Amino acid sequence: MPNGRVMVAFGYHGDSFHGSQIQPDIRTVEGSLKKALNKLTWWSEGCLEICSRTDAGVSVRMNLACINLPKSLIDKVSPRSMIRAINDNLPVGMVMWYVKEVPSNTRARKANFRHYLYRLESC
């Protein structure tokens, strides 16, 4: 079954996660995405590539990730339905808000440049 690739945009409240990378027995951003994809039976080893990483407690308005999915699924499920299905399986504090099919050679981690905007808000 041939694979396709989608790029997704998502955000999260850092207080809800212990950083972005998977760590044993604690809630992380990557672990939560993996769990949601697993529940949908859309997970396969190595299918997820997140653009940037964060430490525990860091909130993100927009991060990007590429997900390899069966091409038949991408063709059958609309971006809106895909967002809804994933969001229904993400924990409170995390939301996916955009999905777009991209060429199979698109990489989330490899970039010519990155632009970070740090926003500090007073309490």
In short:
This protein is of the alpha+beta class and 123 residues long. It has helices at residues 29-39, 71-76, 79-87, and strands spanning 3-12, 48-50, 60-70, 94-102. The radius of gyration is 14 Å and the shape is globular.
Helix count from the secondary structure assignment = 3
Record field, number of beta strands: 4
Strand content: 25-35%
- CATH homologous superfamily heading: Pseudouridine synthase I, catalytic domain, N-terminal subdomain
- Secondary-structure element order, as H and E? EHEEHHE
Number of domains: 1
Largest sheet: 4 strands, antiparallel
Radius of gyration over all CA atoms, rounded: 14 Å
Main structural class: alpha+beta
- Helical proportion? 10-25%
List the uncertain runs: none
Trace the largest sheet across and list its strands.
2-3-1-4
Please state the second-level CATH architecture.
2-Layer Sandwich
Q: Can you tell me the overall shape? A: globular
The CATH class: Alpha Beta
